[in-house]
Design goal:
This protein is an alpha+beta fold. It is built from seven helices and five strands, in the order αααβαβαββαβα. The chain is 33% helix and 13% strand. It is globular. The mean pLDDT is 92.
């Protein structure tokens, strides 16, 4: 529909964060080019810029994964396979959370997926509404995080790997 409209008039697609991190946006750009529609990308800050404020060293992050919202008879947990791979190389794991997934359910899904993949979760980092005046980091174990009922969307979760002493110092300050 966006491409059809763009054939008739100027169209803008505004996204939260970096415009080209989602494969959907790349696909739209490719489809527009195939149809002879000119595209202009205006870059924005990304989650990778924002999570640097945690003090974690960006070059120590492994593959980034997404956690979808689970539904009845649909509980995809393949994101946890990537977390396990990241841990095997001592890399931090950034988990992008489905925008429709509330915080309590995300923690429950994370626990279930970690248990299934035999991953022991220690302290994790929750990054909420980064880049806004409500931006916040929480660095706690899951049981303590369950006490937080007002985590705002969008938020992401980081499962840190082995911490450098400076990373640990910054995280302990949250």
């Amino acid at each position: 529909k966006i491409i059809d409209e763009a054939e008739k008039l100027d169209v803008a697609l505004l996204v939260y964060g970096s415009p080209l991190t989602a494969t959907t946006h790349i696909s739209l750009m490719q489809e527009a080019k195939k149809c002879g529609i000119r595209c202009k990308i205006i870059y924005n800050a990304s989650i990778l810029d924002a999570v640097a404020e945690t003090g974690l060293q960006i070059y120590k992050f492994g593959k980034i994964v997404s956690m979808p919202a689970w539904k009845v008879n649909y509980e995809p947990d393949s994101f946890m396979k990537v977390v396990k791979e990241n841990q095997s190389i001592k890399a931090h794991s950034l988990i992008l959370i489905d925008i429709g997934l509330n915080f309590e359910d995300a923690l429950e899904q994370l626990e279930k997926a970690a248990e299934k993949h035999e991953i022991k979760l220690k302290k994790i980092i929750v990054c909420q509404t980064l880049g806004t005046k409500h931006g916040k980091f929480l660095y706690k174990d899951i049981e303590k995080l369950k006490e937080f009922k007002n985590v705002r969307k969008p938020y992401s979760i980081i499962i840190p790997s082995k911490l450098h002493f400076i990373e640990k110092e910054v995280l302990e300050g949250f």
